[in-house]
Design a protein that fits this description.
The protein is an all-alpha fold. The protein is 58% helix and 0% strand. The radius of gyration is 47 Å and the shape is extended. It starts with 17 loop residues before the first helix and ends in a 59-residue tail after the last helix.
Length: 678
């Protein structure tokens, strides 16, 4: 039988015993000096590498120092020795290393579900977006535990409710959660946003902001910058609510304030930058290209929900389209389609890019292909397809596509659009058929409803407009039976029956009110003189004895206006004879000799560039005594009549520009901000 060995001294500098090393570990653990504790534990494990307590303590120290990968390696290396002692630590390390699926398996495989494992289980379920299961875990923890972490559990539960409201559109459930802290108040505001209650959500965010300032103001170590950094997430959410309310300028200002703070939360920065891009749209694309870099930060995919990441990817593809990066847009949209095969938005982005390239036929083929493969998501796709057909002028094809959308087939807007398009194509029969199908649908589903009667009225008016009185009879009868006091409908019905059945028209005319009941006490003269009258009858002038002489020309003669004397010129001389050509323009008078030219003007050359006055005079053939012939005579020298070569001024050649003379000024690069960037 082997004897139990005594503790050996370590080979360290001081020759310390294992007991003293454990004392050192205990002291460092209480002081939070985990790095020093690790050194002592390394010495202990050097003596006994399978010491379970030392291994466990080492794992805890590594976790406290954030060395999760190293801690996981220790657990995997000594898995046989440790067993189930470190299930929580292993699951926690996997969770912090973003191996969420592995953490879930580790927790579910634990022999016992302790409270701390349940807490971690709730966090893992939240990251996996299994909100219903997560809510059950936190509800159970709050009900069965009483300690100082109750407020944190309620905050987490409020976050789960908010996520269900925003991403799953689940109705709000009153769980009796307080709003005593700014975190709880903020989560309540997020839940209201998911329900579309924007005004209430904004007020709740204001309340959260006040609670945050009050709670942090009590701490003397917290600076104003720390408070603003903590408030960044609240301000970003306030900007989002403001953006949804249509106040984009205010929202943009708040978003930029958050970006300037450079918060450490990469998820917050990514969401804020994405929302700025959505405000910019196809404007200010250079700013959007800077902001999109913030959405590519490391670790963003672990901070945001799947729908948030999906929205950011969609906006990246749209930004590539707006910046004319066609290949990049196609690449991103194709990647999105492979990740979300049933989602229509990637296909719509590809179609938009094809339309920018004037490839409408290819775009329609792509839409038709998606519609055939995913009929459950085909409504919006078919509307786009119809729009493209209309752009190409194929109205009938657009109508066929719209009629194939069962979801909107009998909606009043769809009926109106189809009737308008068929009328444009002069296909009245098809338009009437649209009315017939829609009326039949409402007759079976909602008989006598306002929508039903409105359709019947429009159908009757349409048929009467295009001369289909016989077909309008049934619609008019239905309308009149609903309201027998409607004289206008009765008159239309009588008019329609007059072409088909005169006896029926006569019998119906008995229901018309008498002429006496329809007469109104109206002053015709007052009506004609009213402001809205378009024609006023002229009254005949009364003929009396007084105005007869005036008509015969014996009345008073109109006073003649006195002619004013014309103004004479200042230098007028009555003795002098006026110029007989004074009424003619100066240029047309016989004595006009033109304007006198000054000496300076005569010196200005009118020849080639650089020619002097003397040279131009010599070259002017009209001023020479005998002009030479315009062409040389046979046998004469070709250059005998030419001017002296010294007086000829050759055309001036432009010097070649320097290599950089025609370059445009290079745009100055803007200074980039810090770690700032939809």
């Amino acid at each position: 039988m082997r004897e139990k060995q005594q503790p050996k001294t370590s080979g360290g500098d001081g020759g310390l015993s294992v007991a003293s090393l454990w004392t050192e570990v205990n002291r460092c653990g209480q002081n939070g000096d985990y790095t020093r504790a690790l050194k002592a534990l390394t010495k202990i494990l050097h003596e006994n590498r399978d010491d379970v307590t030392a291994l466990h303590c080492k794992i805890v120290c590594l976790v406290q120092n954030g060395s999760f990968k190293e801690a996981l390696n220790v657990m995997n290396t000594h898995s046989k020795v440790l067993g189930s002692e470190v299930v929580f630590e292993k699951a926690y390390c996997e969770y912090r290393l973003n191996r969420v699926e592995s953490a879930l398996k580790t927790i579910e495989g634990a022999p016992e579900q302790t409270d701390k494992l349940k807490e971690l289980y709730g966090q893992v379920l939240y990251r996996l977006e299994r909100y219903d299961d997560c809510k059950s875990v936190y509800t159970d923890l709050i009900r069965n535990s009483q300690d100082e972490y109750e407020e944190e559990r309620k905050t987490n539960l409020a976050a789960v409710v908010a996520a269900m409201s925003q991403w799953e559109k689940a109705p709000l459930e009153d769980l009796g959660l307080p709003e005593s802290t700014y975190e709880l108040c903020y989560n309540a505001a997020c839940a209201l946003i998911g329900q579309g209650q924007l005004t209430e959500a904004f007020n709740k965010l204001r309340q959260a902001e006040e609670l945050c300032r009050v709670s942090l103001a009590d701490d003397s170590d917290v600076t104003e910058e720390d408070i603003e950094s903590e408030l960044a997430v609240i301000h970003s959410q306030m900007a989002y609510v403001t953006q949804l309310q249509g106040r984009t300028d205010e929202a943009l200002q708040l978003y930029n304030q958050v970006i300037k703070l450079k918060p450490s939360d990469v998820g917050l920065l990514a969401v804020t930058a994405n929302n700025i891009i959505t405000i910019n749209k196809d404007q200010n694309v250079f700013d959007s290209k800077k902001k999109v870099k913030l959405t590519n930060a490391e670790g963003v995919e672990y901070k945001l929900a799947k729908k948030q990441l999906q929205a950011i990817d969609f906006n990246k593809a749209l930004l590539a389209m707006y910046t004319n990066q066609a290949d990049q847009c196609r690449k991103l949209s194709s990647s999105l389609q492979s990740q979300n095969p049933g989602h229509p938005r990637p296909v719509l982005i590809q179609v938009a890019q094809l339309c920018r390239e004037k490839q409408h036929s290819r775009a329609i083929e792509l839409l038709q292909q998606f519609s055939d493969q995913h009929p459950e998501s085909a409504s919006g796709i078919k509307l786009t397809m119809a729009q493209l057909y209309l752009i190409q002028g194929h109205v009938t094809k657009a109508c066929d596509v719209l009629r194939s959308i069962e979801e909107f087939k009998h909606k009043s807007g769809m009926v109106s659009a189809l009737v308008t398009m068929y009328s444009h194509e002069e296909d009245i029969d098809s338009a009437i058929d649209i009315f017939k199908q829609a009326i039949g649908h409402y007759q079976s589903e909602q008989p006598g409803s306002a929508a039903h009667l409105a359709l019947v009225r429009e159908a009757a008016n349409f048929k009467l407009k295009y001369g289909r009185k016989k077909e309008a009879i049934s619609d008019l009868e239905q309308l009149w039976k609903q309201n027998t006091n409607d004289i206008h409908t009765l008159a239309q019905l009588i008019s329609a029956y007059s072409l088909v059945d005169t006896d029926k028209a006569k019998s119906l005319s008995k229901h018309l009110p008498s002429a006496d009941t329809m007469s109104f006490n109206v002053d015709v003269d007052e009506l004609e003189n009213s402001h809205g009258a378009t024609y006023v009858r002229k009254k005949a002038a009364k003929v009396t004895g007084e105005n007869l002489p005036k008509e015969q020309g014996q009345g008073e003669i109109k006073k003649k206006k006195k002619k004013k004397k014309g103004k004479l010129p200042k230098n007028y001389d009555p003795k002098a004879t006026p110029d007989p050509e004074r009424w003619l323009p100066m240029r047309e008078r016989t004595y006009y000799r033109g304007k006198k030219k000054g000496k300076k003007k005569e010196q200005i050359g009118k020849g080639t560039q650089g020619a002097t006055a003397g040279a131009s005079a010599e070259l002017d053939a009209s001023k020479t005594a005998s002009s030479p012939p315009t062409s040389p005579r046979p046998g004469s020298a070709s250059g005998s009549s030419a001017a002296p070569s010294s007086n000829v001024v050759p055309p001036r050649q432009q010097k070649p520009a320097a290599s950089g003379a025609t370059r445009k000024k290079a745009p100055q690069k803007k200074k980039k901000g810090g770690k700032g960037g939809w």
